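hey all, quick one before standup. I had two proteins in the batch that finished overnight and I want to keep them in one place so we stop losing track of which output belongs to which input. First protein below, input sequence then structure tokens straight from the run.
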Amino acid sequence: MMIKSSKIMILCLLVLTLGLTGCSVQMAGSIKDPYENSTMAYGRDRSFVISQIGQPIKTDMKGDSVFDMYRIKRNSRGWGYFRAVVYSFLDVGTFGLWELIGTPLERFIQTDEEVTIEYDQNQKIRQIHYLQI
């Protein structure tokens, strides 16, 4: 009876491990290209910024100023691919147990940044405000 229950426990652990495998690898490998810093240079036109970064999540108007808010992942794609390869080897070497550390670590590494861009009456960048989330 003891042998049968230990086999079931090992089988459950194996299924759980296989279910976790690949989460950190997928997270690290699926990072979007970061925007170029020159995209958000002072004096840039609003339409250019939107064409490069995409539509803002929120837009406000105050007086003659327009405020566009973006939420951007701050991480480089090259390092993401490197981490994905390393995580793959760690997954295989630890039979998937690496995911217990790797997935929370990858969530911590990929920080979101809230960027608010203020435009003047000519739709040119006046100020940029960064807030790490």
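OK second protein, same deal, sequence then tokens:
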Amino acid sequence: MICAYKCISSPMYKTSVRGFTLMEVAVALLILSMVLASSLQLVGQYADERVLIRERFLANRVGWNRLLEKYQELEGWHSYGSLISRRIEGSENQGGADWQWKLGVEDAMGRQLYRFEATVVKKSQPRPSSVLAIFLIDESLRE
């Protein structure tokens, strides 16, 4: 009979010692290394996603600031005039990063209804991080 333990005879007493073979240890280490490698990969993906979500949040914040400023202007909430909000592009520092934004205006269906779109790009990236749009009534744009 083949078994995975040896019987050791001793003059004092008889004991049996069971241990792992080299193959069992190698398979266990292989499985452990695969589990650790996949867990490190998951932690790396989590960190990358967290950075992307933070950047998207900050870009959305910049875009909503521009759109809400336009809304406040159209509602007549500004007592100091609307020179700042008449800009159609600019830059802003948010969360320690510089963001470029553009505010576009398009005709929409309906009388005096316009689509205002804020596009926000991080200065170090080629594509937009956020594109937000709202529909507002603007009597001053109608000719």
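Flagging for whoever picks this up: The chain has one domain: 19-137. The two ends are 100 Å apart (CA to CA).
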